[in-house]
Automatic annotation (TrEMBL), chains A, B:
Listed GO MF terms: DNA binding
Superkingdom assignment: Bacteria
UniProt key word Transcription: yes
Residue ranges annotated for the HTH hxlR-type domain, each copy included: 2-96
Keyword match Transcription regulation: yes
Keywords in alphabetical order: DNA-binding, Transcription, Transcription regulation
InterPro entries noted in UniProt: HTH_HxlR, WH-like_DNA-bd_sf, WH_DNA-bd_sf
Official protein name in the record: Transcriptional regulator
Amino acid sequence: MCDLAAALEIVGPRWALLIVERLLDGPQRYGDLQRELGAPTNMLATRLKELEAAGVLRRLPLKHNTRAYALTDRGLDLANAIAELGRWGSGLSDTD
Amino acid sequence: MCDLAAALEIVGPRWALLIVERLLDGPQRYGDLQRELGAPTNMLATRLKELEAAGVLRRLPLKHNTRAYALTDRGLDLANAIAELGRWGSGLSDTD
DNA sequence: CTGCATCCGGAATGATACTG
DNA sequence: CAGTATCATTCCGGATGCAG
């Protein structure tokens, strides 16, 4: 299996890369991600668990009943790939 | 909608990025892609149509009953993003 | 013989309501 | 606020069949 397929095993499922992109801004809470992404709550919970298991992000327990999700080094490493993909996406309306 | 989401609308579905990666080697025929990717034939046909509609690749009619699929400029533009994602995927076994 | 559509079972996804 | 349970819908995967 090539490296790209291995990467897609983790960030391929829907919402995964969007979650990481939001987290590049800094740690965010569950409700913040849900609102900004517009993702279904069950999918958000599922992806967060997968990404945590993959070592892309980790949960930071806060006071009371709140936690925050923050990228690990492995997650921050995705910044370049996300930037390139975003740059490509921004040029989709050009020269159409 | 952010640029990343727009990009994922096209290359998000399964096999899409894998197809483009194989095509970076040069134009390939349907059977070649099917064998090297191990993708189901129906999915391959579906993704190829979507990617063609998105202007990522185009069909080159060959002699007889064969066609080849080749990347357009827009498809070649994905090389950087694929390279970054592949690089990230290759580091997944490190420091595990 | 290559390219692709169709059929069907199963997995992934999405909307909503509910619990701690 | 954070996450789970449930159910409808769509997507995916494998086999098969048909057309050029």
